[in-house]
Amino acid sequence: MVSYTQEIPDKVVNENAQFWISTNNVFRVADRWAILNDIHVRRTNFMADPNFYFLRVGGQYYLNSNVRLAGGYAHLWLTTTGDWDAYQNENRIYQQLSISKRYEKMNALFRIRMEQRFFNNVQDGQSLNNDFFVNRFRFLVSAGFPFKQGGSTELIVANEIHLNFGKEVVFNTFNQNRFTIGIKHKINNNWKVDCGYMMVYQQLAAGNVYNLNHTLRLFFYGSFDFRKNKNLPFNEVRHGEE
To answer: Superkingdom of this entry's organism (predicted)?
Structure first.
């Protein structure tokens, strides 16, 4: 009888404080179509050091006022050092379905997003030509609770789980979980802002290494209507998103 023993590595949890600011815009260009654009900046050691810069563009199709399909492209520049020559580049294609509903005392949002992520590492300003590919599913559930009916301020609570799959994924099918709680406020007819706390628990590719990020979020949501008939409603439920 042969016995096999393998040393199990210790679990490592790296705890970080981060700050994340973004603008998330919808440009309604037709009754059925809108253009999407997000710009994100995340800092680590709260605000002291850069973490990533992220740009996303896409198109959105309205099946009806509550159900939307979207897809597009995104690019992420990620660093652990702050040195531009050492940033990891990620090209991302995404597709999503979002369903929202307004109730008397709650605004609800459910979103499924699938992402195809292409990574490439850079050293001394040169590509290492070590591209690898990962698929990811994301499931978001978010709810807003207005402080008063018809009011401009609400409490938001959201949770999103990310799951990896594909041949490059060995130890971390679970990618991360994001829990958010905060306050969202309507500034005017075009802009809303949410500010709150996000806890990100992320498993890295090694399998035994995790990041626990305590993040202050400041997200701005822009809604711009370029349709000829502006009498049609355009007031999407959007909170807890990225």
So the answer is: Bacteria
